[in-house]
């Protein structure tokens, strides 16, 4: 595994880059304070800008670690920051990662998260050298499952009552892609 950390990734409509302290206000206004966005997540909407600022200070301090992968999604057309995609768990021994993501409600339904996920998976397979990239969602959040499928992941199974988010305990659907599977799709 190459510990290259959070490097810039470009997709057709997005730039995925490291967070900067100046992103706090847009992050707070665009998604971190919105209870609709955090419905199926494990953290509460931020109650004030100072909460977002303090989290960004912590995240930014971790960018020196090459095993830390956490991108802000910048929308090329306007330059605004609209969401977040990151590795929520890294398994160095098996060269695998679990991904998590969330985005401003006003940008939902345009295929942007699938585009970001494809970009992140390519980076993790090709640059970091991982073999497996996975993600999971609450069974009641099928929109997120579609993102995973559209990015090429395949559903692996449903674990009963195995997760807890702001709505309580829920069944968890797992999706994943192995590097070999991505290579087959790419060479078609
Ligand atoms: C989940 C989330 C990232 C999706 O991002 P997005 O950019 O809107 O996703 P996309 O546009 O790429 O794809 C959404 C797909 O879900 C489909 N969809 C929407 N509502 C759906 C529903 N109720 N059931 C099934 N599919 C649904 C859309 O039709 C679309 O698929 P299509 O392109 O085949 O039509 C975004 O809604 C979000 O940030 N939600 C809040 C945070 C969150 O839940 N994160 C995931 C935690 S696991």
Task: Based on the model shown, name its key terms.
alpha+beta; 6 helices; 31% helix; binds coenzyme A
- Write the CATH architecture name of one domain: 3-Layer(aba) Sandwich
The best one-word shape is globular
Low-confidence stretches: none
Find the CATH topology of one domain: Aminopeptidase
Classified by CATH, the class of one domain is Alpha Beta
Strands ordered across the widest β-sheet: 1-2-3-4-5-6-8-7
Question: What is the CATH homology-level superfamily of one domain?
Answer: Gcn5-related N-acetyltransferase (GNAT)
Bound molecules: coenzyme A
Q: What is the radius of gyration computed over CA atoms, rounded to a whole number of angstroms?
A: 16 Å
SSE ordering: EEHHHEEEHEHEEH
Distance between the termini: 26 Å
Please characterize this protein's 3D structure.
By secondary structure, this protein is α+β, with helices and mostly antiparallel strands. It has a domain at 9-133: Gcn5-related N-acetyltransferase (GNAT) (Aminopeptidase, 3-Layer(aba) Sandwich), CATH 3.40.630.30. It has helices spanning 24-32, 35-38, 49-61, 112-126, 142-150, 179-186; strands at residues 9-10, 14-17, 70-75, 81-91, 96-103, 132-138, 154-165, 168-178. The longest helix is centred in the middle third of the chain and has 15 residues, at 112-126. It binds coenzyme A. Coenzyme A is lined by residues 37, 40-41, 101-103, 108-114, 137, 141-144, 146-147, 150.
């Amino acid at each position: 595994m190459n510990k290259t950390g959070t490097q810039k990734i470009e997709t057709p409509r997005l730039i995925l880059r490291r967070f900067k302290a100046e992103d706090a206000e847009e992050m707070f206004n665009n998604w971190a304070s919105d209870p609709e966005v955090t419905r199926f997540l494990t953290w509460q909407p931020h109650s004030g800008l100072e909460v977002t600022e303090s989290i960004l200070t912590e995240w930014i301090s971790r960018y020196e670690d090459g095993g830390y992968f956490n991108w802000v999604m910048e929308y090329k057309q306007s330059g605004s920051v609209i969401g977040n995609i990151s590795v929520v768990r890294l398994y160095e021994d098996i060269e695998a990662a679990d991904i998590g993501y969330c985005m401003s409600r006003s940008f939902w339904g345009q295929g942007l998260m699938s585009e970001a996920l494809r970009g992140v998976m390519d980076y993790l397979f090709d640059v970091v050298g991982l073999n497996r990239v996975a993600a999971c969602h609450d069974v009641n959040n099928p929109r997120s499952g579609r993102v995973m499928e559209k990015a090429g992941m395949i559903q692996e199974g449903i674990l009963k009552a195995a997760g807890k988010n702001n709505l309580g305990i829920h069944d968890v659907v797992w999706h994943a892609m192995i590097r070999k599977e991505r290579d087959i799709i790419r060479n078609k």
